[in-house]
């Protein structure tokens, strides 16, 4: 890459499933020629029921975590730094990401306690609303670099930010722009064919203009566009599953954006329904 990418922050709870996020963060660190910051947050109010066994058996939790994380990256041959702190997971993640100038936050779906218990709900919602960096939620084993990337877009200027973040993260991937356009009263009555055709043509024109006004898109390689009628969180998940997308990219909201303004419930449903990893990009200028 010609543009230097800032460090990648991995937020980990040291669970077995969290290894997927670790492996993906290592792969991206190598591919982007940057540094990996590995963060573990020890919650201040952990109880014996929510405290992992390995922490209960060790008198020096911080030193044990530092050793475990250092061993995880010892053979990876990437620049890495381990950070262990105590407090609120969301605040600690954001503070560490800002302190190290990170360009991306990576987190996984982990055990049902501490950070893992919150990941698909409060933590992701707050990070998506507040963190300056895109948030990558890793679900799958990283069998290969991201190559088939699905970018949800409403063709607004705001959603172009999500596309740019994807192009910075995966510059060599095949990009598909996905737009879900809603048909009035669909599911209640059969929509008029002329109305549906007009909505499709409008979306098609918006896509052409959006591509023409996005010079960052790779030259000499046509950008695939998919236009589908229906609720965004439903048709996007179906398309991603059927076409086995590696990564879905979405902004936090837009005019008809996938996550909309009410990011909480819709975001959670979307994250749960999508079979792929998800990159959530907070659009600048949002409150």
UniProtKB/TrEMBL annotation:
Gene3D superfamilies: HUPs. InterPro entries: Rossmann-like_a/b/a_fold, Universal_stress_UspA, UspA. It comes from Achromobacter mucicolens. It comes from the Bacteria. Residues 7-139, 146-282 form the UspA domain. Belongs to the universal stress protein A family. Pfam families: Usp. The gene is uspE. This is Universal stress protein. Keywords: ATP-binding, Nucleotide-binding. GO terms for molecular function: ATP binding.
């Amino acid at each position: 890459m010609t543009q230097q990418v800032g460090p990648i922050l991995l937020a980990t709870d040291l669970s077995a499933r969290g290894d997927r996020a670790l492996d993906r963060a290592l792969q991206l660190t190598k591919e982007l020629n940057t540094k990996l910051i590995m963060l573990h947050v020890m919650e201040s109010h952990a109880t014996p029921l929510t405290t992992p066994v390995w922490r209960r058996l060790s008198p020096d939790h911080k030193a044990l975590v530092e050793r475990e994380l250092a061993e995880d990256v010892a053979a990876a041959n990437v620049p890495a730094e381990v950070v262990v702190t105590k407090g609120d997971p969301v605040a600690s993640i954001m503070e560490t990401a800002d302190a190290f100038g990170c360009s991306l936050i990576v987190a996984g779906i982990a055990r049902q306690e501490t950070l893992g218990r919150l990941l698909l709900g409060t933590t992701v919602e707050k990070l998506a609303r507040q963190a300056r960096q895109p948030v990558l939620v890793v679900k799958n084993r990283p069998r290969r670099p991201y190559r088939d990337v699905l970018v949800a877009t409403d063709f607004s200027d705001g959603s172009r930010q999500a596309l740019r973040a994807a192009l910075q993260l995966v510059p060599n991937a095949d990009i598909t722009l996905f737009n879900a356009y809603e048909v009035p009263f669909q599911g209640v009555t059969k929509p008029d064919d002329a109305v549906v055709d007009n909505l499709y043509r409008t979306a098609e024109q918006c896509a052409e203009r959006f591509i023409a006004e996005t010079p960052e898109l790779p030259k000499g390689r046509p950008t695939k566009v998919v236009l589908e009628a229906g609720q965004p969180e439903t048709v996007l998940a179906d398309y991603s599953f059927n076409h086995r997308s590696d990564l879905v990219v979405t902004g936090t909201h837009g005019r008809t954006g996938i996550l909309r303004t009410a990011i909480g419930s819709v975001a959670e449903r979307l994250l749960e329904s999508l079979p792929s990893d998800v990159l959530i990009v907070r659009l600048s200028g949002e409150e």
